[in-house]
């Protein structure tokens, strides 16, 4: 079984690590675009073109499914990628976990990039799935870039700024960019100070997307399967290795086989 994941950069690590924990026997293909990143500032048409190229590079290795492990690429490129690859290769997009976060009708904070915050896309998700909750949209300028660079000081500064915009009585936090899940411990620590030690429920997309990909190909999670899965890294279409910044996160070390325990963050 082979599953491919794509993103402009290392935001795909969270979903890839979730897949590795769910199925240690799966072969993973990580397809990113260091030559074209970041995708966020690009026009929708340009972004869709870059994303389609990254998807086709992964598809050439004949995976059983492809996960678009990027919220922005899902918004702008999912239809084009599905039109190009399906039905031969099922394509799974990534949507912020607003619906489960709002299910209890609490006070929800959605951490997202400045471009996504307040966008028609995110407002539509809030309208459709969070009508019964009190929602605060929290822009996180610079956080995804800091995570991508593996810059701990910049991550800390961006997390602190976003935490200051988050209501102290928040009950649920949506990590609305795949990069943010890589620094969830830092987010938790900053918000623990903000909330006086109260522990909100955190909602990411990595594991749900991995489970959905397995479901689409008729497979099921099997964390006890033999750890025989391989890792292939594609960098703007050419085979390479995980970037150094990836190894600064537990998810990257897990995928590189450096002994990060299953479930550790």
From TrEMBL:
TM stretches of this protein: none
Short name of any one Pfam family annotated for the protein: Asp_Glu_race
Region forming the signal peptide: none
Domain of life: Bacteria
Keyword vocabulary terms for this entry: Isomerase
Protein name (record): Glutamate racemase
Organism of origin: Streptomyces toxytricini (Actinomyces toxytricini)
Source taxonomy: Bacteria, Bacillati, Actinomycetota, Actinomycetes, Kitasatosporales
């Amino acid at each position: 079984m082979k599953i491919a994941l794509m993103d402009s950069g290392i935001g795909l690590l969270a979903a890839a690590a979730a897949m590795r924990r769910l199925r240690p026997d799966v072969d993973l293909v990580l397809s990113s675009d260091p030559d074209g990143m970041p995708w966020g500032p690009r026009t929708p048409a340009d972004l869709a073109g870059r994303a389609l190229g990254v998807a086709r590079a992964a598809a050439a290795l004949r995976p059983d499914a492809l996960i678009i492990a990027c919220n922005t690429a899902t918004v702008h490129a999912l239809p084009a990628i599905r039109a190009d690859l399906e039905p031969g290769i099922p394509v799974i997009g990534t949507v912020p976990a607003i619906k489960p976060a709002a299910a209890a009708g609490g006070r929800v904070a959605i951490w997202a990039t400045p471009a996504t915050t307040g966008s028609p896309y995110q407002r539509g998700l809030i309208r459709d799935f969070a009508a019964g909750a009190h929602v605060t949209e929290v822009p996180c300028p610079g956080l995804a870039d800091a995570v991508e660079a593996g810059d701990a000081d910049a991550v800390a500064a961006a997390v602190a700024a976003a935490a200051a915009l988050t209501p102290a009585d928040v009950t649920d936090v949506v990590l609305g960019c795949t990069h943010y899940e890589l620094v969830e411990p830092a987010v938790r620590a900053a918000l623990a100070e903000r909330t006086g030690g109260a522990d909100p429920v955190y909602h990411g997309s990595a594991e749900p997307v991995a489970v959905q990909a397995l479901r689409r190909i008729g497979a099921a999670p099997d964390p006890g399967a033999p750890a025989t899965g391989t890792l292939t890294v594609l960098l703007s279409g050419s085979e390479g290795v995980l970037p150094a910044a990836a190894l600064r996160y537990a998810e990257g070390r897990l995928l590189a086989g450096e002994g990060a325990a299953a479930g550790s963050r």
